[in-house]
Amino acid sequence: xxxxxxxxxxxxxxxxxxxxxxxxxxxxxxxxxxxxxxxxxxxxxxxxxxxxxxxxxxxxxxxxxxxxxxxxxxxxxxxxxxxxxxxxxxxxxxxxxxxxxxxxxxxxxxxxxxxxxxxxxxxxxxxxxxxxxxxxxxxxxxxxxxxxxxxxxxxxxxxxxxxxxxxxxxxxxxxxxxxxxxxxxxxxxxxxxxxxxxxxxxxxxxxxxxxxxxxxxxxxxxxxxxxxxxxxxxxxxxxxxxxxxxxxxxxxxxxxxxxxxxxxxxxxxxxxxxxxxxxx
Length: 280
Known about the structure:
Elements: H1 17-24, H2 32-44, H3 48-68, E1 73-77, H4 87-94, E2 99-104, H5 107-116, E3 123-127, H6 133-142, H7 144-149, E4 157-161, H8 170-183, E5 189-195, H9 202-212, H10 224-228, E6 235-236, E7 242-243, E8 265-271
Parallel strand pairs: 1-2, 1-4, 2-3, 4-5
Antiparallel strand pairs: 5-8, 6-8, 7-8
């Protein structure tokens, strides 16, 4: 990626998981340090680019499902660098008027998101860290521009796609989701995809983890039980916690159709029960 006017002061010396993900998907918004780290990870696990494409396909299905269920506000934390089939594109296609706030720790990801959204008044992008959820909540509630995008007093579709495995400390990860959950309005949704211990060989997983330990966002896998715990306080939507390709698959999605466990990631959607309709 060439530097250009408006490029933020990114850390060019240390690989970024967001920019590595962009490389896996065939994007061009990455630096040499990101490509080098990504190639090391691919050497350990050649399927990584396909895993990322499968996760991206899951995200598209989830957003489409949520928009059809009536979601009109989407908060995507750990959104990464824009690519084909972005959340706002899918949501606004299904539900014109849907509003989307992208949040990412990587300034390059945020810069490119803002460039993409220049002519879209219903979407915005900000820097933020999933590990500091209260800071994000406070910012949304104190910034009139952001509050016009996301009104936390109304149902929100919270998306945490392939981000929580970059918060390896359990107390920090579960605590972050709990803070977000406690501020969401009744009727809100939570969508999570997460690398699963059960989806990787021990040697491969250890090799990839060593690569990511040298990036800005070291990570770690969790078990099915550990991933399910993120949905405490939510009612799981069918089919529950499943391999990503098993979550409401469509014929147009070819990734791991016959062997969904090879996708390496479990995924699910939950909902905070909406208020019961008042009876007369």
